[in-house]
Design brief:
By secondary structure, the chain is mostly helical. Helices cover 69% and strands 0% of the residues. Helix 6 packs parallel to helix 8, helix 15 runs parallel beside helix 18 and helix 19 packs antiparallel against helix 20.
Length: 506
């Protein structure tokens, strides 16, 4: 029998004999081997270990919880929040393990703000440690950084999460930790794809080992890879390809990334029956998740954005209560809030309501180049026919291989998109749908200039007080102009107004 088998036999013998000093010695000698190749045996050792023995190394409580949940499922335990304590004298590894266990518990309970604070405390402590001089600490850092990254990601702090995942990957490569190496590479690819940094996403997908030896952790490690691949298909206007990728996952398999999974399902589907099924599945899945995990951080924004995508795809009337309807996020706002505002802007642009689209997209035109998909969408929404903005959007789209948002461009803009792409990327020009037919005469031609502006803003979901403030008139004036627009257009509600403008444009 090989060395791995020999070590496993020695560990089994030590467990059976309750020789915990010997177990500890084997852990020091071959922890990574047991972790990757013999997780069930390792879990047996940790479960049978008496409290007085495991108290010598509190980090083992966290390891027991983590391995148990991954080997036996999330129902294994609910003790994350109590897995380790910061009380008493602890060395660097065990202190960091204590923080990591506590932030994992806070993350699981939906207390994401607490989890973020604990990540900051752990980071500050780690900066004071001589990591290169402590091999035990170096060996633990891949998992610590990965858990910190996951907490930040679920809190919606994607930039901080990306930094942690990069550190996790680097330490995993240097210490020989294939699980964290694979998990980090896939997650980094997903976060880059989520932002529209598709070139970087492909680079990291290439680093994900496709032949990982069938480790017990490979299914979970592949989840962000599938999400990244689906996004890349969507950016190539390939919904069928994205759907095939997502069919390889279930909400349960998606695990803590259930929220982006449902968002991508919503974006991918086109048939009414399937869209309604996604909405039903989302509502059912939310019933299994604690309310706090739905209401804090990135999860809440993902759910709101998913519902908006489904409402738009099902052609439901939007109103001031619709997600992100009155949101005007700045260039520094969260990525998902920006996507919500962008969807409203692009929907207006697709319907030919370019003035409304420009109004909604204006705050996003100064977004960082690190969010290229937001910038591409904002430039599309700000354009009407040939323009420097449209040229910049096409240039950026070609650079990032990101063309999906051009399907929202107005009928007047689409021929110019095709012309620009034909000169820059002939293959990309073939991806986009054919030019839309000429739009019917606009219903808004019946209105005065001020009635038209009030009607556009009301249909976009703005409240009467907000419209009044923007136009520097009283709310009663807005109400009068809106009633006049209703009468001329033959509608009675904002929902009917939206339907009329959406289907006829301006």
């Amino acid at each position: 029998m090989g060395q791995a088998g020999s070590n496993a036999e020695r560990l089994a013998e030590a467990i059976a004999a309750d020789e915990w000093d010997r177990v500890f010695a084997l852990f020091d000698e071959s922890w990574n081997e047991f972790f990757h190749d013999e997780p069930a045996l390792l879990l047996e050792a940790l479960e049978r270990m008496p409290d007085e023995a495991i108290d010598r190394e509190p980090k083992l409580r966290l390891a027991r919880e983590y391995i148990g949940r991954n080997v036996k499922g999330e129902g294994y335990s609910t003790s994350y929040r109590n897995s380790v304590s910061l009380e008493g004298p602890l060395d660097a590894v065990n202190r960091l393990a204590a923080w990591t266990g506590q932030l994992a518990g806070a993350r699981e309970a939906g207390r994401l703000a607490d989890a973020v604070r604990l990540v900051a405390a752990a980071q500050a402590f780690l900066r004071q440690q001589p990591t290169d001089a402590d091999p035990l600490l170096s060996a633990a850092l891949p998992e610590f950084h990965f858990q910190w990254g996951l907490a930040l990601e679920l809190a919606g702090e994607f930039d901080g999460a990306l930094a942690e995942y990069n550190d996790a990957y680097d330490w995993a490569v240097s210490t020989g930790h294939p699980m964290i190496e694979s998990s980090s590479a896939g997650t980094i690819a997903f976060l880059h794809a989520l932002h529209g940094r598709n070139s970087l996403a492909r680079t990291w997908l290439d680093r994900f080992p496709r032949d990982s030896g069938g480790g017990w952790w490979t299914t979970a490690a592949a989840v962000p890879v599938r999400l990244a691949e689906a996004i890349l298909h969507l950016d190539r206007v390939d919904r069928e390809g994205a759907a095939r990728v997502l069919e390889q996952l279930t909400p349960v398999q998606a695990g803590e990334r259930w929220a982006p999974y449902f968002l991508l399902r919503a974006v991918t589907e086109t048939r009414t029956r399937r869209l309604r099924a996604v909405m039903s599945e989302l509502d059912s899945h939310l019933g299994t998740i604690p309310a706090a995990r739905q209401e804090e951080g990135g999860g809440a924004e993902y759910v709101a954005l998913t519902r908006l995508v489904l409402d738009v795809a099902l052609d439901r009337p939007l109103n001031p209560g619709t997600a992100f309807a009155e949101d005007r996020p700045t260039a520094q706002a969260s990525l998902l809030r920006q996507y919500g505002a962008l969807l409203h802007a692009l929907r207006a642009h697709s319907a030919g309501r370019v003035k409304t689209a420009r109004l909604l997209a204006a705050p996003l035109l100064s977004v960082s180049g690190a969010r290229p998909r937001v910038l591409i969408g904002a430039l599309i929404a700000a354009s009407d026919g040939p323009s420097p903005q449209l040229e910049e959007a096409v240039e950026l789209a070609v650079t990032q291989d990101s063309f999906g948002l051009f399907s929202f461009s107005s009928p007047r803009t689409r021929p110019h998109v095709s012309h620009l792409l034909a000169h820059r990327d002939a293959d990309a020009a073939d991806l986009l749908p054919p030019e839309a037919p000429e739009a019917a005469p606009s219903a808004l031609s019946l209105l005065t200039g001020r009635e038209r502006e009030v009607a556009e803003r009301a249909a976009a979901g703005e409240t009467t007080p907000h419209i009044a403030a923007e136009l520097h008139v009283s709310p009663n004036t807005v109400k009068t102009q809106l009633r006049s627009a209703y009468r001329k257009l033959g509608v009675n509600t904002r929902s009917q107004l939206y339907e009329l403008l959406h289907h006829h444009g301006d």
